[in-house]
Design a protein that fits this description.
By secondary structure, the chain is mainly α. Among the domains are: 137 residues, Potassium Channel Kv1.1, Chain A (2-Layer Sandwich), CATH 3.30.710.10; 116 residues, no CATH class. Helices cover 58% and strands 2% of the residues. Strand 1 and strand 2 form a beta hairpin. The longest helix has 99 residues. The C terminus is likely disordered. One of its GO terms (biological process) is protein ubiquitination. Keywords: Ubl conjugation pathway.
């Protein structure tokens, strides 16, 4: 049955009576003097009696008395009452999405129905509501927003349900009315300024040509917003659109205003706490639907606003389901309270980690490797907290070791965290520093980390000696492996050569005969060459002897001052006189 017909019993009709003109405050002694929300009104008795069954009954019982004290509790505001008074006095009134529900509620309270007077205000307002408000997305939201101050009256008349049903029907037809789905991106610590870009406004709403500026459900109070979203979820609307609307709601009402207790009033904190608890109840449970960065932001707000345990636990559970999609920044949840001893809420992080590992069923270990690296990075980040207790650090380091087990990762991450912790906590005794370093597996460090540790003065001497010993063992092992690898490579090479020789043996036999023929020809040629060489050598020897003889003779003639010529053989020697002794 139509909501309008359901409520006509409460808005009955009666014979129409012409409305006299409105009069001034001092116009007649028969005027009724009323004060609505501090604003004075002077109304004609006959006019009120003609249009309002309730006012008519009161005035009939008190024809001469002042009835202002009897009508001082009319549940409305001055603007709405003025519209009704103008209607009673025959003036035209302008109905709008912002006032129609208030007018309907007041008209029903005053008994301005067709049973009392034809063409009364209830009929006029109902027609406008039915034909102008309900078909429009924007006008429905505006009408609901205006009804928040008289929510119970509007709900009793089924006006809230009528608007809600209209909104839900439109969302089922076009889910983008809730807003574009959240972009699930992985942000780094430097991308905080881009966080708000993951929320998109309702930019594609085009249901009605006249609705050039689309309204958001986020303008509604949580008392109206929660039941509407709850009904939308049960209509199987895609949950990514629902999640988008929920986080737009948080941005509008919670995230900008999560200040310290000294900056926010008790009423505001209670309102924000109520909102965040309601939104958590509405959040889908599906993994990956909502980015960890947004869940972390919501969890931090819930902790700051002291939300109930169910709300905080629900958010931790959702983060734990998709911890492999988180960043270090998502886990840096500030500790709360005046007596906080550490900068970050490490207990919260441990609960999130516990949920992840207790529910991880994927056969692929990639998620475990990612989370192990995440924990190492988180440990290195919180290690710089000067207030971080030794016990807490050791507990987190133990969790890091447990997370890395079976992932075939080195211990460089935990070494980095230990180095930072020792640097920021110089007051630790030698025994405490050795206790910290006991979490380190020296045999699982990379060569770079070993080299750094060997010269790290923050480490105890005993630890440095152990690291040097570990490096020496690694060096020996590396050399042995290389020698073994080299021998293996040589053996493999010999085997390959042998296989090549076997493959080519058949082809060698084929050319062997041809090679023998060629060899015999070569031998014959060599013999001929040898004989020719010997003949040449004989001729050269005789010519050489003759040449040598000629040369020797020429030299002797020169020494003895002989006339030398190729054709002369005489030698004229000057004889010297020899004197006797």
């Amino acid at each position: 049955m139509d909501w309008k017909q359901q409520n006509y019993d409460k808005m009955a009709t009666r014979k129409n009576i012409a409305s006299p003109s409105r009069k001034s405050v001092s116009a007649s002694s028969s005027d009724v003097q009323l004060h609505i929300c501090g604003v004075p009104f002077s109304l004609n008795r006959e006019v009120l009696t003609a249009k309002s069954a309730k006012l008519g009954a009161v005035l009939k019982e008190n024809p001469e008395d002042d009835v202002s004290h009897l009508l001082g509790d009319i549940p409305t505001d001055s603007k709405t009452f003025e519209l009704v008074a103008r209607f009673c006095h025959g003036f035209d009134i302008s109905l709008s999405p912002e006032n129609v529900i208030k007018v309907l509620c007041l008209a029903n309270y005053l008994g301005m129905s067709e049973d009392h007077s034809t063409n009364n205000l209830t009929k006029k307002a109902c027609f406008y509501f039915q034909n102008n408000v309900l078909p429009s997305w924007n006008k429905c939201i505006k009408a609901l927003k205006s009804a928040e101050t008289i929510l119970q009256q509007a709900a009793d008349l089924a006006l809230v349900d009528a608007c809600a049903e209209s909104i839900i029907t439109k969302v089922v037809h076009d889910p983008s009315l809730l807003g574009e789905p959240i972009r699930n991106v992985t942000t780094t610590d430097d991308d905080s300024e881009n966080d708000e870009s993951t929320y998109k406004s309702n930019v594609r709403r085009r249901l009605f040509v006249l609705d050039w500026k689309s309204e958001d459900l986020t303008v509604l109070s949580i008392a109206l917003y929660e039941p509407i979203i709850h009904a939308i979820i049960h209509q199987n609307v895609p949950l990514d659109y629902v999640a988008s609307s929920l986080f737009q709601y948080l941005i509008k009402w919670v995230f900008p205003g999560t200040k310290g207790e000294d900056e926010t009033s008790t009423y505001e904190r209670n309102s924000q706490r109520e909102i965040i608890e309601a939104v958590e109840r509405l959040l889908p449970q599906e993994r990956g639907l909502i980015p960890c960065s947004l869940l972390s932001q919501m969890l931090q707000s819930a902790i700051m606003l002291d939300a109930n345990a169910e709300c905080k636990s629900g958010l931790e559970t959702r983060i734990g389901k998709q911890l492999d999609q988180a960043t270090v920044k998502d886990l840096l949840i500030p500790a709360q309270g005046y007596a906080k001893e550490e900068q970050y809420d490490t207990e919260c992080v441990k609960r999130i980690m516990k949920y992840f590992y207790s529910n991880y069923t994927n056969k692929d270990k990639s998620g475990l490797i990612v989370v192990a690296q995440l924990i190492d990075d988180f440990l290195a980040e919180v290690a710089s907290d000067r207030d971080l207790k030794l016990k807490t650090f050791l507990t987190l380091a133990d969790l890091s070791l447990a997370a890395s087990e079976g992932t075939h990762r080195n211990s460089d991450g935990i070494y980095k965290a230990i180095d930072i912790y020792l640097d920021k906590h110089r007051y630790l005794t030698d025994r405490e520093r050795e206790e910290v370093c006991r979490m380190l597996d020296f045999n699982n460090l990379s060569p770079e980390a070993c080299e750094h540790a060997a010269h790290n003065e923050k480490l105890p001497v005993r630890v440095m000696v152990q690291i040097l010993f570990s490096v020496q063992l690694k060096l020996k092992d590396t050399v042995a492996k290389r020698i073994q690898r080299g021998s293996g490579n040589l053996l493999l090479k010999l085997e390959e050569d042998e296989e090549d020789a076997m493959r080519t043996s058949s082809s060698e036999e084929e050319v062997k005969a041809e090679m023998e023929k060629m060899g015999s020809k070569v031998l014959e040629l060599e013999k001929e060459c040898h004989m020719m060489r010997r003949a040449i050598q004989r001729g050269s020897y005789q010519h050489k002897i003759q040449k040598e003889k000629t040369s020797m003779w020429k030299e002797m003639k020169r020494k003895f001052d002989c006339m030398t010529s190729l054709h002369e053989t005489n030698c004229h020697v000057k004889k010297k006189k020899v004197h006797p002794r």
